[in-house]
Specification:
By secondary structure, the protein is an alpha/beta fold. It is built from 19 helices and ten strands. The chain starts with 15 loop residues before the first helix and ends in a 5-residue tail after the last helix. Adenosine-5'-triphosphate binds near residues 358, 365 and 387.
Length: about 600
């Protein structure tokens, strides 16, 4: 896959107002802490601002007989208090910034794990992950540092300007003239910082996407000798992140250097004009000294303002990506309701003229599927690949919403069920039997966290996993590796079956759940499923008819339609497609004989 295919290019451009609202939404819960931090910063700045005044008073007293020790003590106290308050303010703000990031991550994580499946399928998980990790980190600077720097820098700037104006309006005019001239040039480069930062964040997202893809198919990459090609794709994304990061730094450097330059040029201009005014007796030398100190002091708020502006540009890019992830549709939990009337009993399932397609632009996968499954017993779904069998299970679990028709469980439309309650009734073993990294025990109790040890032992025996657990040095606490890589395919399937059984479902969905088992284990598991089917409704998708010949009913699907329903013997006799499937698998015989056959 070329790099461009994994790049997210759907980041919506937020307007300035939307960016600000999104930003405010993130720091609103922490606004009082931000206010406290800002007040500390202002108090520290005020203490600093008083220093030139104290210095002026000190210089004025130099020629006279007044003692300067009082002023010196005041100056020292101002420095100490100002520094202490600034330190407290910095801590409060950094702590708040971390809290903003934590809250944003919690919100994103909470939403991402509740996303609707179609949303996940049209995004790149790696890119979503980078929004939780990398983009939220940028929020830290933009929600506190930038905002507080803007407030404190702005207020200090204004206060300094007012005091300078009171000292000498002419020198203030000279200063402002220089600053506005250079500041205007800086404003022009700001959008460049935002553009570069956005591209850089997108490239970081690509790195995660490519790596996630690579680790998800690690063996395939090795077996295909594709390491170098994949590394090159990651390298291209990393280089792009570097390129745009450097571009952003270049514009930031231009901005900061310009500000330094503006203050220095102002300093020289004030020195020249101020010197002339002192020489002509228009102002005393103490005024010039104080004014120059103010000018020196102006560097900090001006730098703060530029810092705020650059951080805001960087954060705006991250906010856009966070907002995009926040806007992905999550699942509707459904109506709040009490326990189902039929709790504990085997579930009855009915598909009533169900039509479904995965996306509006795709063709229909189900063209009016109808069947009825009474409570308990085993029902098998068979048919050619792509007929829509797995889709039946996805619709029952409400991973997807039907485009037409109804699905009823116990006679109640599944859209009327609270989603959690619906899924709590179901045990689902997927086609590729996913096992999560962690221990065997964690995998088993994944769908039933409160399961007792006896129940775990029981399902281990039923899933024929007891022997494996006894052999493992750490038993149930053995770590199974990323996606269960330390287990065989058959072991993974048995773990998935045990997990589903431990949930004590009313409806058990098995999708090719025993396809990787050896004949002995497959037979044993078939018996277990038959036993479970006595008081649980079991729906099975199977390609190997040998696993389903004893089912109570078999639903034959073809191209998104149900073409026949019956027992093995009935279908062999009257459905040509089923007859053909059975014949190619040497099963066109009595169920008793066929049951043991392996294809
Ligand atoms: N998530 C999806 N997004 C888009 N199309 C999908 C998705 N899942 C399945 N399809 C398509 O829907 C059709 C039915 O798929 P489904 O998995 O239900 O078939 P199946 O009968 O279970 O096939 P198999 O026996 O090979 O597992 C296929 O054409 C498939 O390409």
């Amino acid at each position: 896959m070329p790099a461009d295919d994994v790049r997210s290019d759907t980041t919506p451009a937020l307007t300035a107002g939307e960016t600000w609202r999104a930003l405010y939404g993130h720091f609103r819960p922490h606004r009082w802490a931000v206010v406290l931090g800002a007040l500390c910063a202002l108090a520290g700045a005020a203490a600093g601002l008083a220093q030139p005044l104290a210095a002026k008073s000190l210089v004025d007293r130099l020629g006279g007989s007044d003692s300067i020790s009082g002023v010196l003590i005041l100056l020292t106290a101002l420095v100490l208090v100002g520094t202490a308050i600034e330190a407290v303010g910095a801590y409060v703000l950094d702590r708040t910034a971390e809290s903003v990031v934590l809250a944003a991550r919690r919100t994103l994580i909470g939403r991402l794990l509740r996303l609707r499946l179609p949303e996940v399928e049209r995004t790149q998980p790696g890119d979503l992950m980078s929004r939780v990790t990398s983009d939220t980190t940028l929020l830290k600077a933009v929600t506190t540092r930038s905002v507080v720097a803007a407030i404190s820098g702005g207020v200090t700037f204004l206060a300094t300007i007012v005091l300078m104006g009171l000292m000498d309006p002419v020198l203030l005019g000279v200063t402002l003239g220089v600053i506005l001239l250079i500041g205007g040039a800086v404003a022009l480069v700001m959008p460049q910082i935002s553009k570069a930062a956005k591209k850089s964040q997108e490239a970081v997202g690509e790195i995660s996407t490519v790596l996630e893809r690579a680790f998800g198919a690690f063996r395939t990459i090795k077996a295909s000798g594709a390491e170098a090609r994949e590394a090159a794709v990651v390298d291209r994304a990393a280089t792009r992140a570097w390129k745009y990061g450097v571009r952003s730094s270049k514009w930031e450097a231009v901005a900061f250097t310009s500000i330094g330059l503006s203050v220095q040029v102002s300093f020289l201009a004030v020195l020249g004009v101020g010197g002339a005014r002192v020489a002509s007796g228009e102002i005393p030398v103490s005024t010039l000294v104080a004014f120059l100190l103010f000018l020196f002091y102006l560097i900090e708020p001006v730098t703060s303002l530029v810092d705020a502006a650059t951080q805001y540009q960087v954060g705006a890019a991250a906010i856009a990506r966070i907002v995009e992830a926040e806007r992905l549709a999550t699942e509707d939990p459904g109506p709040a309701g009490g326990a189902p009337a039929a709790a504990g009993r085997a579930a009855a399932v009915e598909f009533d003229d169900v039509r479904f397609r995965y996306r509006a632009e795709l063709p229909y996968v189900h063209h009016g599927v109808s069947f009825t499954v009474p409570g308990a017993g085993m029902t098998a779904f068979v048919g050619p690949s792509g007929a829509g069998k797995t889709t039946v299970f996805g619709l029952i679990e409400r991973f997807y919403e039907t485009s037409g028709g109804r699905i009823l469980i116990d006679g109640r439309d599944i859209r009327e069920w609270p989603l959690a309650e619906l899924r709590a009734s179901i045990g689902y073993v997927e086609q590729d039997a996913p096992v999560l990294s962690g221990t065997l025990r964690e995998n088993l109790v994944f769908a039933a966290p409160d399961a007792a040890d006896d129940a775990i032992r029981d399902v281990l025996v039923r899933a024929r996993l007891d022997g494996l657990v006894d052999r493992l040095p750490d038993g149930l606490d053995t770590v199974v590796g990323h996606r269960g890589s330390k287990l065989s395919g058959g072991e993974r399937q048995r773990v998935a079956i045990a997990r589903a059984l431990l949930r004590r479902p009313r409806l058990l969905l098995l999708d090719e759940a025993t396809s990787q088992l050896d004949a002995v284990n497959e037979m044993a598991l078939r018996d277990v499923v038959a036993e479970v089917a006595r008081d649980v409704t079991v729906l099975v998708v199977a390609h190997r008819l040998s696993t389903v010949t004893l089912a109570d009913r078999i639903v034959v699907m073809d191209a998104g339609r149900v073409r026949a329903v019956g027992t093995h013997a009935e279908l062999v006799a009257r459905d040509p497609l089923y007859g053909e499937l059975a014949a190619t698998q040497f099963l066109a015989s009595a169920p008793g004989e066929a049951a043991g056959a392996r294809i």
